[in-house]
Amino acid sequence: MQITPQAKGTKRLFKNPILERLSRTHIAVPLVVFFVYASVLLYWSATHTSLSVWTTLGMFSIGMIAFTWVEYIVHRYLFHMSTETEKREKMQYTMHGVHHEYPKDKDRLAMPPLLSITIATILLFVFRLILGDFVFSFLPGFIIGYALYLAIHYMVHAFQPPKNFLKILWINHSVHHYKNGESVFGVSSPMWDYIYGTMSKNKSK
Q1: Which residues have a Cβ under 8 Å from the Cβ of 114 and sit 6 or more positions away?
Q2: What does the pLDDT profile of the chain (205 residues) look like in tens digits?
Q3: What distance in Å separates the CA atoms of residue 71 and residue 77, rounded to the nearest whole number?
Q4: C-alpha dist (Å) from residue 133 to 35, 47, 136, 185
Q5: Dihedral of alpha carbons 73, 76, 77, 80, sign
Q6: DSSP state, 160?
Q7: What are the strands, taking DSSP E only, across the chain?
Q8: From CA 15, how far away is CA 178, in angstroms rounded?
Q9: Rounded Cα gap, residues 19 and 81, in angstroms
């Protein structure tokens, strides 16, 4: 599905005004929600489990790294799914294509909080079965990784690139949006693009 990015503007996705409103969010809302969610889980870990501080920090770090991999996989294979049928094309556009068409639409730079909280809670129950008490330090790292991704994604689209080492994140995501949408899938980290060979070789400084 070929999409031409627009310099400004937005697009209505749903006829239902409630669904349309739920598809939009100010970036501050999910950031506050997920930092609070992660803090509550860490508090529970400290007060209701026997995990040591070092174990907690280790699992938290693993959770953050795990998120960067999930971010890459979801972006590459779900958000950029093949669209050989009309149904798949509509699904892809609703999930991610609209962002590629209107990359400056600040209300659609983050997944709606209600959906994100639902997914995070499902992950809590699933990971609890797999990890036991470790989930209360692993999932906060995963969630903070997601929050940092949201913040970076917002800044890349809303602000000019900084004159420091973080500029590469702006360059990478610009390549993905404006040069080659089938490369540079990592937003918060380019690590998995290098590992899986999807880092663009032609990037202008």
Answers
A1: 22
A2: 567 777 687 888 888 888 888 888 899 999 999 999 999 999 999 999 999 999 999 999 999 999 999 999 999 999 988 888 888 888 888 888 888 888 888 888 887 888 888 988 999 999 999 999 999 999 999 999 999 999 999 999 999 999 998 899 999 999 999 998 899 999 999 999 999 999 987 655 4
A3: 10
A4: 20, 12, 6, 32
A5: positive
A6: P
A7: none
A8: 29
A9: 23
70-75 own/partner pairs: CB under 8 Å, 24+ apart = 70/142, 71/145, 71/146, 71/149, 71/186, 71/187, 71/188, 71/189, 72/185, 72/186, 72/192, 72/193, 72/196, 75/185, 75/186, 75/187
- 109/173 Cα distance (integer angstroms): 13
Helix, strand, or coil (residue 202) = coil
Three-point CA angle 158, 199, 76, nearest 5°: 70
CA angle at 107 for the pair 9 and 124, rounded to the nearest 5°: 150
First-residue to last-residue Cα distance in the chain: 28
What is the distance between the alpha carbons of residues 13 and 97, in angstroms, rounded to a whole number? 11
Amino acid at residue number 65: I
Q: What residue spans define the domains of the chain? A: 26-196
Read off the pTM: 0.90
Q: Closest Cα to residue 5, out of 179, 184, 202?
A: 179
